[in-house]
């Protein structure tokens, strides 16, 4: 049963990777990368249970925190970049 869960997680990660490559907007791509990170945490938890290694759960939690902070940083970068572009276009028109 846990092998089926592992295969399902890998399949959803492949679909999220396809969305990250084909996403029409930047926000779709960031959401897909965040989903890949979340599925990676779930996969690490399942592998931790299968191999009887509870120390992998600590690594999964650290990875989840890094994923969360990384997504916030990328979204802030794109927000500031969009704000700068809108400010530059108004300055050029004056």
Quick rundown:
By secondary structure, the chain is mainly alpha-helical. The protein has three helices and no strands.
Give an overview in words.
The chain has 94 residues and is mainly α. The chain has a single domain, classed as Helix Hairpins (Orthogonal Bundle), CATH 1.10.287. 91% of the residues lie in helices and 0% in strands. Helix 1 packs antiparallel against helix 2 and helix 2 runs antiparallel to helix 3. The longest helix has 39 residues. The chain is elongated, with a radius of gyration of 18 Å. It starts with a helix and ends with a helix.
| Gyration radius over CA | 18 Å
Shape: elongated
> Low-confidence spans: pLDDT under 50, at least 5 residues?
none
Q: Major β-sheet, in short?
A: none
Counted by DSSP, the helix tally is 3
Order of helices and strands: HHH
CATH arch. level architecture: Orthogonal Bundle
CATH first level: Mainly Alpha
Oligomer description: single chain
Q: Which percent bin holds the helix content?
A: over 70%
For the secondary structure, the number of strands is 0
- The end-to-end distance, rounded to whole angstroms, is 65 Å
Mean pLDDT: 90
């Amino acid at each position: 049963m846990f092998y089926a869960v592992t295969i399902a997680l890998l399949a959803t990660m492949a679909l999220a990777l396809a969305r990250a490559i084909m996403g029409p907007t930047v926000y779709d791509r960031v959401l897909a990368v965040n989903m890949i990170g979340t599925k990676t945490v779930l996969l690490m938890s399942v592998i931790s249970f299968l191999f009887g290694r509870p120390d992998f759960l600590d690594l999964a939690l650290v990875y989840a925190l890094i994923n969360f902070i990384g997504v916030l940083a990328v979204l802030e970068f794109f927000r500031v970049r969009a704000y700068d572009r809108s400010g530059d276009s108004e300055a050029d028109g004056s």
